[in-house]
Amino acid sequence: MKPRIALLLLLTVFCLTLAGVPAMAGTIFNNGAPNSSSTKLSVAGKAVLSNTFTCSGVSCTPSSLTFYGTAPTFGPGATLSWSITSGEDFGVNSGSGMSVLPITGPCNGLGQCLYSDVPFTTLALGAGTYWLNVTAGPPGLDWWSSGSAINRASWVSASGISLDPAPGSAFAINGTVTPEPRSILMLGSGVLGLVGVLRRKLMR
Fold first, then answer.
1. Same domain for 189 and 173
2. Distance separating alpha carbons of residues 41 and 161, to the nearest angstrom
3. CB-based contacts of 201, cutoff 8 Å, min separation 6
4. d(CA 153, CA 146)
């Protein structure tokens, strides 16, 4: 293969690599799982639990929520209401909705049950920090905190009792992240460096 043809092929691979970078599906935010010393807070009735999370890319598109909770028995139609706002359960509302919860979740001996992929409606978020606010329909649910929480949280009970700050919740927001341009440039620089090394070898 002639050096020029090989170089053109490498540059084509470089361009295709950059084209595939813009959107990466996975986890937007993960605050970890509960442990034996974790606490739980009720989100039944009018009780609201609010948690901060960060979109670290240029933009994020949440698709579902994963969390740990405890409930006696979920009957048909049990729901989780949620909203994503700029403030602590107030401010600019980027999206809200109600999701039907699974009847059960896998539970451990502490009663910490995993509820995975509770769907969001489609919404797009810019880079920055947001608040996820949740409450549950009857019979309600206790939401477990994370033993290694990295976010701030607050809780207001159905009777108005507040806890601020509250233990950060054990939850993850799943979806698509569009990375910052500098991340793409770093990848591009690495690929170009590889192209340069291969070009020198081919020219020998």
1. no
2. 12
3. none
4. 11
